[in-house]
Design brief:
The chain has 107 residues and is of the alpha+beta class. Helices cover 32% and strands 25% of the residues. Strands 1-2-3-4 form a four-stranded antiparallel sheet. It is globular and about 60 Å long.
Length: 107
């Protein structure tokens, strides 16, 4: 099975393109994919990111506030079929809610 199922993610991970993303987002993706490539077990992945179990045998890690990488994992071999996705509402719902902002005082 190929490592990437998303051509945009492949280009960013290989350092060939920013893929229309902000530089800091592209760098975070590049760094996370490098760590994923080195992982041989899900326990390796949990050393640098929280791993979520999704449907169809896929897993997800959060890369930035609104981007996740989903992938399949074969023990002893590593990740495959990596995809870059926007963060879904279910992931955000499990995070702690943002602190309420105080209204600005008019001067």
């Amino acid at each position: 099975m190929p490592l990437f199922s998303d051509p945009l993610l492949a280009a960013v991970a290989d350092g060939l393109s920013l893929g229309g993303l902000v530089i800091s987002t592209a760098k975070a993706i590049y760094d996370f994919v490098g760590l994923l490539r080195a992982a041989r077990s899900l326990q390796d992945v949990t050393l640098f990111a929280e791993v979520r179990v999704l449907e169809n045998g896929r897993y997800a890690i959060q890369v930035t506030r609104n981007r996740i990488i989903t992938f399949k994992f074969e023990p002893g071999i590593g990740p495959s079929a990596l995809r870059l996705e926007k963060q879904g509402k279910s992931w955000a719902a499990s995070r702690k809610p943002p602190s309420p902002r105080k209204p600005r005082e008019k001067s």
